[in-house]
Request: fold
Amino acid sequence: MGALHWREPLASHRVIRALGKAAIYLFLSTAAIAFIVPLWWQIATSLKIDEQIFIFPPIWIPHPVDWANYPEALTFIPFFLYLRNTLYIAAWNVVGILISCSLTAYGLSRVEWPGRNVLFVVVLATMMLPYAVTMIPLYIVFTQLGWVGTYAPLIVPAFFGSGFDIFLLRQFFMTIPMELSDAGRIDGASHWDLFWRIMLPLSKPALATVALFTFLHSWQDFMGPLLYLSDDDKSTLALGLQKFLILHDAEWAYLMAASTTFTIPIIILFFLTQRTFIQGITLTGIKA
Reply:
C-alpha cells in the first residue's frame, strides 16, 4: 500500500508535466503558424495570375503557378542595382559597428578608469531616444556637412557606435574571466594585445550576433535612404520596393515577387547563423 501511495503522486506529476509541455507546444505551434501565414500568402500571391489575386474565397495554393512573375518583377525595377547599393551600405555598417562597438565595449568592461560606469549609463540612455527625436537634428547636421544625397549619413554613424551593440558586447566581455587578462599583463601584453589576441577570438558568438543585427537593420532600413538619398541610382531595395508600389500599384503579383526576393535572403541568413546567433544572445548578460 505504501508503494502504491508513493507511485500515485509521481504518476499525477508526470501527467501534469506532459500536459504542460503539450500546452507549450500548442502555443508555439499557433504562434509559428501566425508568423508563417503572411509569408506564405506573400509567396503564393507572387506565383498567381492576376485573376487569382483578389478572388474570394482566397486561393492558398496557386494553380497554375506563374513563375514568370519573378523575372518580370526583377526587370520592372533595377533590382540588382538596388541590391548592390543595399549590400554596399550594409557591409560598411557591419564593419563600422564591429570596430567602434567592440573597442568601446572593451574600454567599458576591461579597463578601470574614473567615470566608466557613468559613461556606460549615458550610453544606455541613448537607447531610450526614439529615432524621431534625433531625425531632424541629424538631418540638419548632415545638410551642413554636405552629405545629403550621398551614402555618408547611412554609413559614417556606424563608426561612432551604437548603444545597443555596445551594451551587448560589453555584457559579453564581462563574462570572460579577468584572470586571462591578468595573465596577459604578466606576460607584458598591452591593452591592444589583450583586445586583439584574447577578447576578440573568445567573443566570436557576440560579434556574429552584432554583425547579424546590423546587417538586418541596414538591409531593411527604409527611413534612412528615404531621407538622405534622392538619386534613384543610389536607392536601396527597401526604397526601390516603395517606388515600385507607387509607380505600379496594380501589379501586385510583381510586387509580391520582388518582396519575396527581398525577404528570402534574410530567412536563409538566419537559418545559417541561428546557432551562433542564439549562443551569442544566451551568453550575453550572464554577468552584470
Q: What stands out?
A: DSSP finds 14 helices and no strands in the chain. The two ends are 52 Å apart (CA to CA).
